[in-house]
UniProtKB/TrEMBL annotation:
InterPro entries: Surf1/Surf4, Surf4. It is a multi-pass membrane protein. This is Surfeit locus protein 4. Signal peptide: none annotated. The keyword Thylakoid does not apply. It comes from Gasterosteus aculeatus aculeatus (three-spined stickleback). Belongs to the SURF4 family. It is found in: Endoplasmic reticulum membrane. It comes from the Eukaryota. One of its GO terms (biological process) is Golgi organization. The chain crosses the membrane at residues 84-106, 113-132. GO terms for cellular component: endoplasmic reticulum membrane; endoplasmic reticulum-Golgi intermediate compartment. Its main location: endoplasmic reticulum. Pfam families: SURF4.
Amino acid sequence: MSSIHVPRGSHSGSWWTPIGCRRLPVLMWTAVWAGPWFLRITKQYLPHLARLCLISTFLEDGIRMWFQWNEQRDYIEATWSCGYFLATSFVLLNLLGQLGGCVLILSRNFVQYACFGLFGIIALQTVAYSILWDLKFLMRNLALGGGLLLLLAESRSEGKSMFAGVPSMGESSPKQYMQLGGRVLLVLMFMTLLHFDSNFFSVSADNEQ
């Protein structure tokens, strides 16, 4: 009497068996039912989460200004020889400007003015910390500006888009250009993680030998 060979490790509940195939429609119907329910539950939280992600760097830097108050003040005073008062004013401006701008954006009050204020903070820090001559940090600052562009574009038509920076139908051309520029600048943040080696081909040749 011949017997059917069953591969080792297989079982009746595998997805490749008839029993497993019967489970697929159940999972598909579960996904179809749970998808709208999940979006309906999280819809009111996702826009706030998107804005928080875009301004998280400003929030972290503002908090760091508070905990590193003396170090930041001494650095500015030593670098620019501007005196105690101006150095303290610079740190205070960064702290209040960044935290205040983040609060306004998250609360959706005066978003455009908050974005312009954070643009000013970026420009001020670029000069004060000599970021203009450091390509890596300059690209990161440009990426921060891209995030602000997305927030600024979203604030131009509040309520038409579910996510910050996601395009919607019938929106104006200036907003589309701002969103495109913001996305391009955000890519620079990830480019700072790449390390280019000028001796790549020589290293590859050595490995082949």
